[in-house]
Amino acid sequence: QAKESGRNTLRFFDPKIQQELYLQAEMESELRRAIADEQLVLYYQAQTYLGKITGAEVLLRWIHPEKGLVPPGKFIPLAEQCGLIIPLGNWVLETACRQLAAWADHPELSKVTLSVNVSAHQFSMIDFVANVERVLRETGAEGKLLKFELTESAVLIDVDSTADKMMQLKDLGINFSIDDFGTGYSSLFHLKHLPVDQLKIDRSFVRDINEDPDDLAIVQAIIAMAHNLGISVIAEGVETEAQKRCLEKRQCRHFQGFLFSQPLPLDQFENCDIDIFNYETA
Ligand code: C2E
Ligand code: MG
Ligand code: MG
Ligand code: MG
After folding, report:
1. d(C-alpha 67, C-alpha 48), whole Å
2. Could you point out which of 5, 95, 173, 281 has its C-alpha 20 to 30 Å from the C-alpha of 189?
3. For 282, which DSSP code?
4. pTM
5. How far is the CA of 153 from the centre of ligand 2 (A)?
6. Surface-to-core class of residue 211, CB atoms within 10 Å of its CB (0-12 exposed, 13-18 middle, 19+ buried)
7. Phi (first) and psi of residue 48, to 5 degrees
8. Which residues contact 221 (CB under 8 A, 6 or more apart)?
9. CB atoms < 10 A from the CB of 42, how many?
10. Rounded to the nearest 10 degrees, how much is the dihedral formed by the CA atoms of 156, 159, 161, 166?
11. In contact, 98 and 139? CB cutoff 8 Å
12. Is the distance from the beta carbon of residue 202 to the nearest atom of ligand 1 less than 6 Å?
């Protein structure tokens, strides 16, 4: 910024830009305090298979003292920019793992998996694996109940070191899902060389699946790709029975979306009335 201001000083007299920079700086310092002040919470959105819950995606929420509930779209990008995504991401991982450990003796919830969104920046940290290992040890959570959602861009930054890290994390039992699949640029070649367990079809393709033949074609291609790679496929953003039926007809059986459940605060998720899917009796 300092470098830019030399040449483009005029820019900063634009009151709109000045206002925006001010708001951004304010939000950054508020977000910095949010962790310590316990303003962050996790919501849990069910992931289903054959009509039963197999797990949940944990979605970060910021309960701002004045603004109320702030959705992640409003602060994750900023957190990525200013590096706060690292402490935020750590908080999410620790909280999710503590929850898994708390459910360990629960008659039903002990088999529920938690999917954690890991940002590219967070995943690229040199101590990421060591940190995950430490969190698993300190919380007592089982690695096999943990799933990381990575985006295609996160995976592609440095494919060799990504593969390396993913292998080490797989040794801890952790599974991998490629989030928002179809919106990035990952090639089959790269996928083949990475220990990916699941593709997650982006909801932008699911939305008009019954109206737009191009979206349907993309979804069918993703499902075929997953099956050919021998991995599972989940559709996100499933809102209607018609979307679900269309996906089922194409052999997609893992779902997440408002049709099944909204993202819920912990107590509501624990008491929601969808059955738990038990792999051992299936
Ligand atoms: P995502 O990982 O693709 O998460 C799915 C988003 O779709 C969530 O938005 C969820 O509430 C929303 N969604 C789920 N089902 C439906 C549906 O049926 N219809 C519609 N219209 N939307 C649905 P949310 O919670 O606002 O999160 C937005 C994004 O913020 C996430 O996209 C993810 O990229 C990011 N995010 C959320 N929590 C975290 C986190 O803990 N760490 C990181 N790095 N990113 C996070
Ligand atoms: Mg996700
Ligand atoms: Mg997603
Ligand atoms: Mg998405």
Report:
1. 33
2. 173
3. -
4. 0.92
5. 13
6. exposed
7. -120, 155
8. none
9. 21
10. 80
11. yes
12. no
| Token pair for 67 | 């603004």
How many residues in total does the chain contain?
282
In the reported structure, the alpha carbon of residue 8 is separated from the centroid of ligand 2 by a whole-number distance in angstroms of 38
Q: Which ligand is closest to the CA of 203, given by its number? A: 4
Identify the residue whose C-alpha is closest to ligand 1 atom 15: 257
Distance CA 178, CA 191 (A): 10
Q: Does the Cβ of 263 fall within 6 Å of ligand 1?
A: yes
- The 10 Å Cβ neighbour count of residue 255 is 24
ipTM greater than cut 0.95: yes
SS (H, E, C) 81-114: HHCCHHHHHHHHHHHHHHHHHHCCCCCCHHHCEE
Coil vs helix vs strand at 239 = coil
Q: In this structure, what token pair is assigned to residue 257?
A: 């979306």
Question: 265: part of which helix (H) or strand (E)?
Answer: strand 264-265
| CA 177 to chain CA centroid, nearest Å | 9
Q: What is the mean pLDDT of each run of 10 residues along the chain (282 residues)?
A: 53 77 87 92 96 95 93 94 94 98 94 96 95 98 98 85 95 96 78 92 97 97 93 97 97 96 96 67 42
Minimal-distance CA residue to ligand 1 atom 13: 237
